[in-house]
Amino acid sequence: MKDLILVTGSTGFIATQTVLRLLDEGYRVRGTVRSQKKGDALRKLVASYRDDAPLEIAVADLLEDEGWSAAMKGCDGLFHMASPFPGGDIEDEDKLLAPAVEGTERVLKAAKAAGIPRAVLTSSVAAVAYGVPTRPNGVFTEKDWSDPQGDGISTYAKSKVLAERKAWDVVADGGPALTTINPSLVLGPMIEDDHGTSIGMIRSLLSGEMDKIPAAAFGIVDVRDVVSAHIKAFEMDSAKGERFIVSDAFMTMEEVVADLRNAYPSLSEHFPTELEDGAIEHRVPSAKKASETLGIEFTPASHAIVATAQCLIDRKLVDAPVAR
Ligand code: NAP
Predict the structure, then answer these.
(1) How confident is the model at residue 320 (pLDDT cuts 50, 70, 90)?
(2) Where on the phi/psi map is residue 9: left (φ > 0), alpha (ψ -120 to 50), or beta?
(3) Mutate to test the pocket of ligand 1, among 32, 62, 81 (most ligand atoms within 8 A of CB)
(4) Pure H helices in the chain
(5) Alpha carbons 228 and 296: distance in angstroms, whole number
(6) pLDDT digits over 185-215, tens only?
(7) Short-list 213, 322, 301, CA closest to 259
(8) Which of 37, 39, 66 is nearest to 55 (CA)?
(9) What InterPro entries does this protein's entry cite (predicted)?
(10) Does residue 247 have its Cβ closer than 6 Å to ligand 1?
């Protein structure tokens, strides 16, 4: 029987798919949830894919000590995926920073105390390329760090860079061998209707909710590749102590809209045509290291975009179009 992996925030978009893949690959999984009700829903979801899956549920909140020590007991590895990823404006910065940063410290310290040998943290390119000036070629690698006090940094990016820094600090003098996976915007197929913020962007476009095309650009990665990166990182000794950016193409929102328009010509009137004012910053995350070391062959970003859209349509999660 393979190792027992603790997956925090196991109800999340990336985490549910990680839980299922770990089970498929023969691992045993203990998933943390914020309430027993959410744990029951996760069990039901997993049961709809697999009979008799070796899945345990543990209840613990990133803001409380209670439950973490019991959750860690007997685990061989930790995938720390829980962290708030809100869409829209954030009024109270601390509501995001406390679970992200104190939560990461709490979880990593509990793993250390429990003697868990390996930990993989879901960080982000938000911890790599923001709050710092961009550069002529626009390319950022794992050697780069976002500046949490830097100009223009979002509260979310601040939460991710401070949380990742905290994780490295906790293990600096011992504890689990840590790897971070730093995804760009995660898209791709969904396995349940409840979806996170990244999928919400495609849903808004398909639903005709965007008046203008945002002046924005980002790397895109398929959720299946993000899951593979976590598992490969856990399994490979050479990944210990390393950060890995996972990302396929860097695309402007205009290009994302063009892909959707090509794939769904009948929905053409839902998509905005006018580009919002503003300069588009090129902060291109390089995933060369993940390709070379972890052997990830990235799903093309365009496939991830269309897979997201198709899931949203199949699951009837696209609202009636707004007439334009
Ligand atoms: P998600 O679907 O919103 O999942 C977030 C998870 O964190 C949920 O399970 C949520 O639990 C849990 N969580 C939030 N606050 C918590 C708290 N106080 N205590 C315990 N659990 C808490 O987001 P996701 O997109 O899968 O993101 C998962 C991880 O990937 C996050 O660390 C995120 O920063 C990172 N990431 C995401 C992307 C992306 O584009 N999606 C890109 C880069 C990095 P509930 O279900 O109870 O709310």
Answers:
(1) low
(2) left
(3) 81
(4) 13-24, 36-49, 68-72, 93-97, 103-113, 155-171, 197-206, 223-235, 253-263, 288-289, 301-314
(5) 8
(6) 999 999 998 888 899 999 999 988 999 999 9
(7) 301
(8) 39
(9) Epimerase_deHydtase, NAD(P)-bd_dom_sf, NAD(P)_dehydrat-like
(10) no
φ/ψ (deg, to 5) at 252? -80, 160
Given 158, 160, 166, 232, which residue is catalytic?
Answer: 160
What local confidence, expressed as pLDDT, does residue 13 receive? 95
Q: How far is it, in rounded angstroms, from Cα 217 to Cα 204?
A: 16
Architecture of domain 4-186+221-247+285-298 in this structure: 3-Layer(aba) Sandwich (3.40)
List Cβ neighbours of 209 (8 Å cut-off, separation of 6 or more): 319, 322
Per-domain residue ranges of the chain: 4-186+221-247+285-298
As a whole number of angstroms, the distance between CA 166 and CA 199 comes to 28
How high is the pLDDT of residue 324?
41
Contacts of 142-147 with C-beta under 8 Å, sequence gap 24+, read 142/182, 142/242, 142/243, 142/244, 142/245, 142/289
pLDDT in tens, 48-83: 998 888 999 999 999 999 999 999 999 999 999 999
Scan for tokens 């293990």, then name that residue. 171
Contact 83, 108 (CB under 8 A): no
